[in-house]
Design goal:
Blueprint lengths: L4 H4 L17 H9 L13 H11 L6 E3 L6 E3 L17 E7 L4 H13 L1 E4 L2 E4 L2 E5 L5 H14 L3 E5 L3 H11 L5 E5 L4 H10 L4 E4 L3 H13 L5 E4 L5 H17 L10 E2 L1 H4 L3 H13 L4 E4 L4 H14 L12 E5 L8 E5 L2 H14 L3 E6 L6 H6 L5 H11 L1 H4 L4 E4 L7 H7 L4 E4 L7 H13 L1
Parallel strand pairs: 3-6, 3-12, 6-7, 7-8, 8-9, 9-10, 11-12, 14-15, 14-16, 16-17
Antiparallel strand pairs: 1-2, 4-5, 13-15
The chain binds iron/sulfur cluster.
Length: 453
């Protein structure tokens, strides 16, 4: 854990009332430093050594590293807990698709097309894989750089460049340096030669050791050389070792604040498992513990979607229910004669109801009331989905200007709010809909037919 304000204040000069840092006292400045709201160099009386020591002590225990650029950048690290239920996991792992330069042109194109096209809309989000990992396997440097060039020109994704051949690795880096690729692997054998080349065009580097112990001197030397955009690969030989190593690194960084291991990690189910199903199962374990990047040899919609949903669930903050924005949604391009339904803003409720409307093929308006992410019945019990609150929302959401018929369908489970809602919405007729979203398909077509008749 970074140090507290009461520890920091002992390192400050204690000049009473000088305020040159912008804060009334050293103690106020120390508290701001501890919360990450100020930088130590704001105090002009600190020595450069003290500033460096404070910056080091205040740095997050696992460094934040970015791969890729622009809207496709993947940020990993900066995690604060071992177990997700302690607080939350913050930066979801990037899922990378391996492309070997030994694969046929057709296969390469198929994989690029796949990662571009396999995107899944999911409760207001788009779930997708994030990175491509060109792999130098052919022994022909020209083939590898041609592959990297092709990927660079046909996608905007970040890359994990994998090559044991340093010349090929840095030639490939030069093609896509502006895309901020991860260079892998830096090892004890190539570290000395790699450092000056990395510094020419700084991008993140993946450090590989035969063991966790071997990583420590490598990251220390890189840090001494001013290279801190680092990702760790502990050289695990099988899945059991991999989970052990990932857990050890996370614990060393968070519990011991051991800086040489305070970096995000990468895992390679593509090399650990030969069988496609086992590879996906390994990836599923890695989503829980703990790599920042997971490299797969291949996937399709049936293996990728479950991984993406799992990743979404694990990296959703458990302290806050998933919720969608309060407003009226248009499902299947409704017109002014379409039915109007209302529900709560728990994301799952919204997803189920809107999907049921789509399945019924009846264009509709779906008014979603903010219930702080609670389901309809719980929200009613908490006073967030009563006749008065729903009525106030319907008046202000603007649906009255959009729709011709003032007839609102409420969920059957809260039929009891009908009278109160009629009082709150003069001029509206209130209809009680089905109790379950699964019954919407049987309800909505007939309701709409009567409405229009
Ligand atoms: S500038 Fe330095 S000495 Fe002055 S109040 Fe701020 S922290 Fe204290």
């Amino acid at each position: 854990m970074p140090i507290s304000g009461s520890v920091i204040v002992k390192k400050l000069p204690g000049r009473k009332g000088c305020k040159e840092c912008g804060f009334p006292t050293c103690f106020a400045f120390a508290m701001k430093l501890a919360s990450g709201g100020a930088k130590p160099d704001k105090c002009p009386y600190l020595t450069s050594e003290t500033i460096a020591a404070l910056e080091d002590a205040l740095a997050p225990p696992i460094k934040l590293v970015q791969i890729g650029a622009g809207e496709n950048a993947v940020q990993i690290g900066n995690e604060e807990v071992i177990y997700r239920h302690e607080k939350t996991f913050v930066h979801p792992p990037g899922i990378a698709l391996l492309i070997s330069d030994k694969e046929s042109e057709t296969k390469v194109e198929e994989k690029i097309k796949k990662i571009n096209e396999l995107q899944f809309p999911w409760i207001g989000l788009t779930l997708k894989a994030n990175l491509l990992a060109p792999y130098f396997e052919s022994g022909d440097r020209n083939k590898f750089t041609a592959l990297v060039k092709k990927i660079y020109e046909s996608t905007n994704l970040g890359m994990v460049l994998i090559s044991e051949d340093m010349d090929a690795l840095f030639s490939a880096r030069d093609i896509c340096a502006d895309r901020y690729p991860l260079l892998y692997p830096v090892t004890k054998e190539n570290l000395g030669a790699a450092i000056p080349k990395i510094k020419e065009k700084p991008t993140p580097v993946g450090v590989r050791g035969e063991s966790i112990e071997e990583l420590v001197p490598l990251t220390t030397k890189l840090k001494d050389a001013g290279i801190e955009e680092v990702i760790l690969a502990p050289g695990s030989k099988n899945l059991r070792e991999a989970i052990r190593d990932q857990t050890f690194i996370r614990r060393a960084a968070l519990k011991q604040n051991f800086r040489p291991l305070g970096y995000p990690t990468i895992a390679f189910p593509c090399f650990l498992a030969k069988d496609g199903l086992k590879e996906i199962m390994a990836a599923s374990l890695f989503i829980i513990k703990y790599p920042g990047i997971i490299v797969l040899s291949d996937f399709d919609q049936y293996s990728l979607l479950p991984l993406l949903v799992q990743r979404l669930n694990i990296y959703t903050d458990p302290r806050f229910p998933m919720a969608v924005e309060e407003k009226y949604y248009e499902v299947l391009e409704p017109d002014e004669y379409s039915p109007i339904l209302v529900t709560s803003n728990w994301a799952l409720t919204y997803f189920l109801v809107s999907s049921a409307i789509e399945a019924a093929k009846v264009p509709s308006f779906l008014c979603v009331k903010d219930t702080e992410g609670l389901g309809v019945v719980t929200a009613w019990g908490a006073g967030k989905f009563g006749g008065d609150t729903v009525g106030a929302f319907i008046k202000k959401c603007g649906i009255a200007d959009r729709a011709k018929y003032k007839k609102l369908v409420i969920p059957g489970k809260v039929a009891r709010i009908k009278g109160e809602l009629e009082d709150a919405l003069p001029g509206w007729e209130i209809a009680v809909g089905p109790r379950e979203a699964t019954e919407i398909g049987g309800f909505l077509p007939e309701f709409t037919r009567k409405l229009k008749a």
